[in-house]
Amino acid sequence: MACDTRGIGLAVQSNRVLWSFGEQTMTGVKVGEPQGGHVFVTVGTTLFDALIQAVDTPAFKRILLDKGYSNLVIQYGKGRIHPKEGVFEDGGRALRVEAFTFKPSLADYVKNAGLVISHAGSGSIFETLRAKRPLVVVVNELLMDNHQQELADALADNRFLVVAKPSNLPERVGQFDQSSLVEYPKADAGNFAVELDRLVGFAP
So which residues are the signal peptide here (predicted)? Predict the structure, then answer.
């Protein structure tokens, strides 16, 4: 893999966040392969019931089965919707579902996932990208001054991740092809995330 990353940065101008990833040249870059058919959904410390509701449906679970996944782990945080746990069966296939509010660390869940579906907080995004996990970011459209949308769109434009809304998440996951993604550059990734948190105050 060769990676030449220049000019990753951002600026704040007239209450608007401007993202710039500069020039990037990548060859032979691949995002990590699926790990044991495991899908991890996380809302971090936020309240994002619309995301949890979108993944806690028979139709969505069938999509995961169709794509070869066998385990779904949902971290639902402060949400009022508690996902149904147990085994979802469909046509002789089984999807094991686990759900929890918080854990001291989510790093192992991210590292072991074949697919991560995350809220749009910068901390969760960059943790997943650094772990080289395929990532679908779901933006909370109810947030005001939605800089998270701008960040997610900028990263998606560079093919580091896929962006979805709760309303189209099943479609986006059903069409998801991780071979279309490229690996986020290692250089400055941590500093970039810290700088975003400092300037914009995204939730972890």
Answer: none
